[in-house]
Amino acid sequence: MNTKYIMLTSVAVVSMLTLSAFAAENDVDRRDAPRPQTRLHSDRLGHLGKGDKASGVIGMTVKNAQNEKLGKVDELVVDLENGRIVEVIVSVGGLLGVGDKTVAVPPGAFTRDENDKALRLATDKEKLKSAPAFELSRWQEYSTRAHVAETYRYYGHEVYFSDAPEARPEVKDSKSPENSRLRKNGNIASTQFGQMERASKLTGMTVKNKQDEKVGKVDNLIVDLANGRIPHVLVSSGGFLGIGDELSVVPPTAFHYDAAQSVLHLDTTKEALMKAPHFKSSEWPNLDDPVYSAEVYRAYRVEPYFSARVESDNTARNVRDRQDSRLTPLDQGSSKADVETTRRIRQEILDREGLSVNARNVKVITVNGRVTLRGPVSSEAEKQGIADIANRIAQRENVDNQLEVKGQLTPAATDK
User: Fold this and answer.
1) With bands split at pLDDT 50, 70 and 90, how would you rate the model's confidence at 328?
2) Are the C-beta atoms of 336 and 368 separated by less than 8 Å?
3) Which of its termini does the chain have fewer beta carbons within 10 Å around, N or C?
4) What is each CA distance from 7 to 1, 2, 3, 11, 18, in whole angstroms?
């Protein structure tokens, strides 16, 4: 018995030593193996960054860390169907003493200086002198995969698409079922190099649906430079909806760009557009809110590239938003009376001075004359003040006040 025990113990020890040696050898192999580069301009999936109007970014001053003026933004090169900012075109010639020159820069190379209302670029004038040029007058020559890849490498950034065209077959027909499937699943916006266009050219472009009806025109693009993304496209759709000055919020990947006709196609109807998120130009929602933005993407059956998770203060509200039994802005009634009731309440909330950001962004949903108020506010006074507005406009018996004071959200909701 003792002999067998000793033999078994010896075998176990030898096995453990062998496995330990094998693991150590593999660890050495992993340390020596080349590691994938970190994406500097970032694909940071799960994060919705701060958005700006494309029209506001174009024309912005560009400075370096030493506060020297390097130039100004001439244009944004975008790939709308993939929801990407491809490059930022900066006019630098006059300041560098090299005559007229415009260069392309990856969007993730910039940071915002809110105090100075400028963009910061971590480079010096000498580097810009040798930077890859981008002449807008020679668009076809410069808007290629190879030139974009060269630009990103110059600034030490990894491209968001595969650098080798053969690595992933591209879908030529943007209307094909395969393309629609990829776009819905969010894959196409992560890996494909698509059609480049000027942001300024897309702004003002006509939007039509499958019935060849004019839905509206592009009012602006919302751009997130840090992540190289276009989170939203704003379409002036009021005329089509018959409700005046109205902007619809649409995911960029929901569009098909017809470059030959200079038209954007959107698969929607008047009824669907009415139910999808839209707002008065004087009543802007918080487009940086991932919960609101996720609702925009769901309305067009597009998978968002970001997570809808928000800060813990809003946890209970977001759990309630996800419950099918609860109303969301997508349930907003489409009748003129319901739309007008919501508009009037929202307008008075925005006109009231002293309200917190949370209070100004509460959800107002009117269905068949019944108003539901939802979201966090900062105090009981704000909760009562908003309720008073709704009670006066829609009558108290028609108002369901579900507003919750920040910090007093129900524990039961947060545990779900």
Assistant:
1) low
2) no
3) N
4) 10, 9, 6, 6, 16
**Left, alpha or beta for 99 (phi > 0: left; psi -120 to 50: alpha)?**
left
Phi-psi region of 186 (alpha: psi -120 to 50; beta: other; left: phi over 0): left
**Alpha carbons 216 and 263: distance in angstroms, whole number:** 11
pLDDT exceeds 70 at position 318: no
Model confidence over 343-375: pLDDT tens digits?
899 889 988 888 887 888 888 999 999 999 988
The DSSP annotation for 67-136 comes to: --EEEEEEEEEEEGGGTEEEEEEEE-HHHHTSSS-EEEE-GGGEEEETTTTEEEES--HHHHHTSPB--G
The torsion region of residue 50 among left (phi > 0), alpha (psi -120 to 50) and beta comes to: beta
> What average pLDDT does this structure show over 82-96?
86
Q: What is the distance between the alpha carbons of residues 340 and 352, in angstroms, rounded to a whole number?
A: 18
Give the pLDDT of residue 148.
94
Beta bridge mates, 110: 121
Q: Are 222 and 230 in contact (CB under 8 A)?
A: yes
Identify the pLDDT of residue 47.
Answer: 79
Using an 8 Å Cβ cutoff, are 316 and 291 in contact? no
Q: In angstroms, rounded to a whole number, what is the distance separating the alpha carbons of residues 224 and 84?
A: 9
State the Cα–Cα distance between residues 127 and 288, nearest whole angstrom: 34
Query: Per-residue b/e over 122-148, b at no fewer than 16 CB within 10 Å?
Result: ebebeebeebbbbeeeeeeebbebebb
> Domains of the chain by range and CATH?
314-416 (3.30.300)
Share of the chain above pLDDT 90, in %: 42
* pTM of the shown model: 0.62
Cβ within 8 Å of residue 244, ≥6 positions away: 238
CA distance 119 to 109: 10
Q: How far apart are CA 325 and CA 302, in angstroms?
A: 22
Contacts of 124 (CB under 8 A, 6+ apart): 64
Q: What is the pairing mode between strands 110-113 and 118-121? A: antiparallel
Write the pLDDT tens digit of every residue in 169-189.
444 444 444 444 444 444 444
Token reading at 149 = 């890849």
Residues 34, 26: Cα–Cα separation, whole Å: 14
